[in-house]
Amino acid sequence: MTNEPGDRPVEHDPHPDYLPPRKPWAEPYWEALPDGKLLLQHCEQCNAFAYPPVDERCSVCKSPTSWREASGQARLWSWIVFHHEFFAGYPLPAPYTVLMLELAEGIRMLATLAGAEPADLACDAPMEFLSREVAPGVFIPGFAPA
Ligand SMILES: [Zn+2]
Fold first, then answer.
1. How many CB atoms lie within 10 A of CB 101?
2. What does pTM read for this prediction?
3. How far apart are alpha carbons 97 and 106 in whole angstroms?
4. Which residues fall inside 5 Å of ion ligand 1, going by CB?
5. How far is the CA of 88 from the centre of ligand 1 (A)?
6. Where are the domains of the chain?
């Protein structure tokens, strides 16, 4: 697997339908990805991190949140290889690999595998974040073996 966009032609869309809705309060998250940064919501009140950004308030205590850059370090929990297209227009050609990771910040997230093959993976292996440009101007989180 490479860090290149899929081999099917994809028209440029700043936020295509196959990604979660882009909320104004979550713009820092989306704007950080092209810079190779993963931002997490953080609650100053209860010290909880949250991912994905689905609510502007803390999912634990409902306090306002701020953004913190993640360390980019994670451990691999599990993975699955998608052999069929499940999301119309998704730019990664099948088969592609989706990872369940536990971030150093203590929360879990889903991301795509980058720069490696499923045969390279092992449970609890250290992984590193990298931003993936899957279509022109469209970035999603990826992780590669550390
Ligand atoms: Zn909280």
1. 22
2. 0.84
3. 22
4. 43, 45-46, 48, 58, 60-61, 63
5. 35
6. 24-145
